[in-house]
């Protein structure tokens, strides 16, 4: 009884991410891996194999032509490749206008825990006097704070501003440089770099007598897999362009 | 310019909770404490003082007659007194039917962090293979698990069941009695009792390569205050009966 | 059978700290509270009552004359009053030279958990590539980092230097100001200020594949009490001057 | 200038652990990997290559004959192979008696963070009224609690008993089965099983107003490497048998 399984193809199948996705698709009872494609392969294998959904973790240089081909051939796409700005998103929407039955999901972050952390932080933001963000990563990371922490702090700041909540109280009058962290739209963000860590983030909220902490720990590089599979399972029911996996989480 | 401040009365003003509420109302720029009432006092002071909202943290024996009097006199109520079962809630609804302009908020838990923890846990429940709950309290607590942890686990279990998510994976084949915690609808709950703690709860979710932790720490007994003030500020705009502060949190 | 109980006096008995100590002494089966003294009272009450150990949480202006009187009268002392520099400590040692049977304990921090945190951090310091310190306090605190965090970082740095351990690895090349915290002798320290917190500190160590975290949470102002009682019970067996409670902890 | 590097051999070089050790030895500036041996290889390669220290992560069936050969040939050994009971340790000591210059280190756990956690827990045990242990592992683990948690709880219990400390206070009168965890010598131990975790342990101590938490997180399988390298560097200076890496940590 394999006839009802979703037929999945993977673009960039030999990359580290692609390999993890292939393994996960093969392990899933409701999915069937029917095509693995890498940069020198023709895309025709997707049509020949009856692929219904293609996962694309390739490169900004090739993802747009991949996407156009997939849309034109009526194949849904789940895309983790980076580099999508407003112009590119508009191009994808245009192309989809001629193929209203096709669904495309483009997401900057497929880790469900990371996405929920941001969402919950946004929801909680206005209900606490105080908020700070701590992100903790391996010591090889080049930027501080992390992009996710920066974005989380911005979302929190926007939610507080919209609700008319002022700055977190802070009576600090004597401080060593840097002790109070970086300021992202009035939200303090602290970056820890420690051997033995991978990628972690903690959002701390506080008000009279209580605190709420939302913490996300990503301890291996395959934490994107469940989010990708979710996209594969849902995208056929979401024609048009979906940006981010949030809308799939029924929040 | 005090004319626009909400005129607040407190029932049970001399109790420990009542005192904390009186202090908080007095400290709030947009609220005015106009009446403090205890068990031997007449309720007329509320009408005489032009009270708009009364906070009731009294006793199950008297709260129903308090509420009827308040509703009949067109005064909104924010109620933290315990003992409201379906019968009592129905009685309140009946009384409110004749006074459609009056708002009554009855909540078992005014700690915003506790309410958000439950809500977020419910939303996250279906997206992770695994979930367990740890609650940590001072060693004088009589019941294990706590009522809040029991309720949190039940909400998580219901959300997972509704989404068709099975039990958390668990290969344990050799265990000491109790090591794996209590079973609440297939969700494992662990109760820690430790001197130096007050009331804390942690919900742990996990899936491939990542975990999400939602933790609530309540470290003093006034953590209900912000939730009560929120109720006081909002109840005039919510005629009828509201149960729990969740609907006020715009989630 | 109260005859074997240690006879305890309290100097500064009406202060907030003094009250907590009086209550704790009265609650301890092996201690007897025989004298409460405040600033306008004569010290003679200690000799009249047969006091064996006096606890002094008073003021830098009066503590030296208190101590001299106690030493001269053969009474042991446990001192939490601040302001002891090397000069003052030398004065106390001199006075004790003439009364070799008297024990005096002077400690800047009586919270056993804080002292153990520092000690363990010092012991662990050389065994991990990476270390950072996070301290978290209520938002009314004036200084950042806290004195305890500063001292903890200094102890860690000294232990690493003595063992020839270099700086924690850190590839950060792009950072917002403050993101990476304050630098205390090459140890990064991050200060969180949040409503709903009291006084907390976390020391994070990391090396290949593992991290070790030592966390101290002080959630009410009486966390000094067990350390003071420990001092009261032990000081008679430690003639001379003892600085800090570390030597009493049998580490 | 490689002449001063320690010449290292690895037994079980092709195993997962052996590979990680080979890689680490090769990456260390002060060590030189001179021999890789697996089960069908002759041990003579160690003498031929001038190996000074051999690391043995093999199998209980072969480790004793490996060790005898190494001792007889004057080669130091660092052993992570399991299965050493008192009889086996006595045999090793006997063999070493004839070769007093040889050092052998046999350790059940090379993760420095795990060893420090146990040591610190033992030191802190007597100073807190309350203690509980939480261990958290991936869901494929067969036993609950983990061996490390069981041993940690036993060490804590022994330290408390030696100091005359009674049971942790606990007023629980109504509990669901298992809520309060397993009882290991009067210390409560809780086992969490969660997808997305590897191996983690938390020891919680509490007394009036404060708690101390010692947490160890092991997030990949190579966390034994730094402890093995430490053994390799130190064993030549420790003739005779050393059990456990604790004595190498200068605590």
UniProtKB/TrEMBL annotation, chains A, B, C, D:
Residues 113-245 form the Dihydrodipicolinate reductase C-terminal domain. Its EC number is 1.17.1.8. GO terms for cellular component: cytosol. Pathway: Amino-acid biosynthesis; L-lysine biosynthesis via DAP pathway; (S)-tetrahydrodipicolinate from L-aspartate: step 4/4. Residues 6-110 form the Dihydrodipicolinate reductase N-terminal domain. It is found in: Cytoplasm. NADP(+) binds at residue 36. InterPro entries: DapB_C (IPR022663), DapB_N (IPR000846), DapB_N_CS (IPR022664), DHDPR_bac (IPR023940), NAD(P)-bd_dom_sf (IPR036291). One of its GO terms (biological process) is diaminopimelate biosynthetic process. NAD(+) binds at residues 12-17, 80-82, 107-110. (S)-2,3,4,5-tetrahydrodipicolinate binds at residues 138, 147-148. Gene3D superfamilies: Dihydrodipicolinate Reductase, domain 2 (3.30.360.10), NAD(P)-binding Rossmann-like Domain (3.40.50.720). Keywords: Amino-acid biosynthesis, Cytoplasm, Diaminopimelate biosynthesis, Lysine biosynthesis, NAD, NADP, Oxidoreductase. The active site is at residues 137, 141. It comes from the Bacteria. Homotetramer. NCBIfam families: dapB (TIGR00036). Belongs to the DapB family. Catalyzes the conversion of 4-hydroxy-tetrahydrodipicolinate (HTPA) to tetrahydrodipicolinate. This is 4-hydroxy-tetrahydrodipicolinate reductase. It comes from Nocardia aurantia. The gene is dapB.
